[in-house]
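stage 2 :: seqdesign
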């Protein structure tokens, strides 16, 4: 199996990054991560964040940039993240008024091509990162996620498939990565345990974060990569066969271990495969 570069979504260790951004990045490098995917700058300017990244000695490959931030100042925002080294700008999440069932989704589909063009002009590629709510079927049976990729040309929008939410939605992550062969440069590796009936996204996250107790008939928890129910070797084979270039570890919440320990467990597992 080919060894692809392994990065980490810094959101996974956000509390540590909030307290000591540079030190946390250095710790991730020492664990064996090859690159970073950012989700916010923790109150820093692009200039200060770039200096911290350079001092930590680990490159930035991509960044999750909220829709509102992209809409507010697209030119400045895209240029700022590119200045940090980002090759990929990622739409990470859609608020309820922008999701498939809401009127705002049509605006999202109309706007994404323009964002893709702006990214390309700055030397970056626009990606879309899915959750499970995009796996809503249209009247013709097509998932909204697939409709999005049909509506926007590949040269303006690539995929960042999140293996956790594909599985939660009832689909096979490896098969979905293969479905987007040549269009999925970055694959999110996210593991979890799920027992009982499928739950809505917000409820899952509330449980996983400890905000409310598990229900009597269901259980959900994020796990370090390789410690949950995902078939990680199958996803890695699919990523390689589909032309993926990078793997990103993401763990939204960690209850049994500190986030940094969970991050270390994930990269050690992947290095051992």
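stage 2 :: out
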């Amino acid at each position: 199996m080919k060894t692809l570069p392994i990065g980490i979504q810094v959101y996974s260790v956000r509390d540590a990054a909030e307290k000591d951004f540079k030190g946390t990045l250095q710790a991730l490098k020492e664990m064996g991560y090859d690159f970073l995917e950012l989700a916010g700058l923790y109150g820093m300017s692009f200039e200060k964040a770039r200096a911290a990244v350079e001092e930590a000695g680990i490159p930035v490959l991509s960044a999750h940039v909220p829709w509102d931030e992209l809409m507010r100042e697209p030119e400045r925002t895209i240029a700022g993240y590119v200045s940090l080294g980002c090759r990929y700008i990622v739409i990470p999440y859609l608020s309820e008024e922008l999701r498939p069932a809401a009127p705002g989704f049509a605006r999202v589909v109309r706007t994404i091509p323009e964002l893709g063009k702006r990214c390309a002009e700055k030397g970056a590629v626009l990606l879309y990162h899915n959750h499970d709510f995009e796996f809503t079927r249209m009247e013709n049976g097509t998932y909204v996620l697939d409709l999005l990729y049909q509506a926007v040309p590949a040269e303006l929008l690539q995929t960042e498939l999140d293996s956790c939410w594909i599985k939660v939605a009832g689909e096979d992550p490896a098969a979905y990565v293969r479905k987007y062969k040549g269009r999925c440069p970055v694959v999110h590796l996210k593991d979890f345990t799920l027992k009982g009936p499928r739950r809505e996204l917000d409820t899952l996250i509330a449980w996983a974060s400890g905000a409310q107790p598990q229900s009597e008939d269901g259980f959900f928890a994020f796990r370090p990569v390789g410690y949950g129910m995902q078939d990680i070797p199958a996803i890695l084979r699919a990523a390689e066969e589909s032309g993926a270039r990078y793997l990103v570890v993401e763990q939204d919440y960690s209850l049994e271990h500190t986030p940094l320990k969970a991050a270390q467990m994930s990269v050690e597992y992947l290095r051992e495969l």
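stage 3 :: structure notes
- The radius of gyration is 18 Å.
- The beta strands are 6-9, 35-38, 60-64, 88-91, 125-129, 158-162, 186-189, 191-195, 219-223, 246-249.
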